[in-house]
UniProtKB/TrEMBL annotation:
Residues 219-235 form the Post-SET domain. GO terms for molecular function: histone H3K4 methyltransferase activity; RNA binding. The gene is Setd1b_0. This is SET1B methyltransferase. It comes from Bucorvus abyssinicus. Signal peptide: none annotated.
Length: 235
């Protein structure tokens, strides 16, 4: 004998009426296509049209945060440094498109992937700020480890930026006696930073270079820049 199971009724609010009183005890059952489309249409309409006050509340904190960040950076600059601040702020939120690959000057080099106008910030030289004593110890340790090149950039008499093991693409910039960029020390929030500026217009796929300005020493380091006015040595 077979007994016909009573159909599960629906309530007035559109929800299915459970015979046993519990949805978990009735297991899986299919939902009619009409009910499914009705539910999907309602949820889609709700998702596409959020309340107007919600949109305002979500946008205001973001805009206020950006304005406060800009005011905070502006307050750290005075006088002629205002232009540097604005450029550094732009460089922070919109980095230049750069790539590193094999260079005809030496080993790896940094190349532009977009046109760069003259007197623009190209990239910040990022690394660890260390003292002279630590720099001397690290330089010796790098030699013992077989690291041929150390990427240390002097900021002032007491501070050196070490990008040998903790840095960005700026450490791949090669030296040139006729460079298209130059390095400049700026102060942001009482902290000194090294930024690479463009001296002239830089084309796409052109290598970025600057003058290392090494101090004159007895042991010379050969220069391989190949420019017409090449000095022959880095120091």
């Amino acid at each position: 004998t077979s007994f016909s199971t009573p159909k599960k009724k629906k309530r007035d609010d559109g929800m299915r009426e459970h015979v046993t009183g519990c949805a978990r005890s009735e297991g899986y059952y299919k939902i009619d296509k009409k009910d499914k489309l009705k539910y999907l249409n309602n949820s889609r309409a709700f998702a596409e049209e959020p309340p107007a006050d919600t949109q305002v509340r979500t946008r205001l904190p973001l805009a206020a945060g950006l304005r406060s960040e800009q005011r905070r950076l502006l307050s750290s600059f005075t006088g002629s440094c205002d232009s540097d601040l604005l450029k550094f702020n732009q460089l922070k939120f919109r980095k230049k498109k750069l790539k590193f690959c094999k260079s005809h000057i030496h080993d790896w080099g940094l190349f532009a992937m977009e046109p760069i106008a003259a007197d623009e910030m190209v990239i910040e030289y990022v690394g660890q700020n260390i003292r002279q004593v630590i720099a001397d110890m690290r330089e010796k340790r790098y030699e013992d480890e077989g690291i041929g090149s150390s990427y240390m950039f002097r900021v002032d008499h007491d501070t050196i930026i070490d990008a040998t093991k903790c840095g960005n693409f700026a450490r791949f910039i090669n030296h040139s006696c006729n460079p298209n960029c130059y390095a400049k020390v700026i102060t942001v929030e009482s902290q000194k930073k090294i930024v690479i500026y463009s001296k002239q217009h830089i084309n796409v796929n052109e290598e970025i270079t600057y003058d290392y300005k090494f101090p004159i020493e007895d042991v010379k380091i050969p220069c391989l820049c190949g420019s017409e006015n090449c000095r022959g040595t880095l120091n």
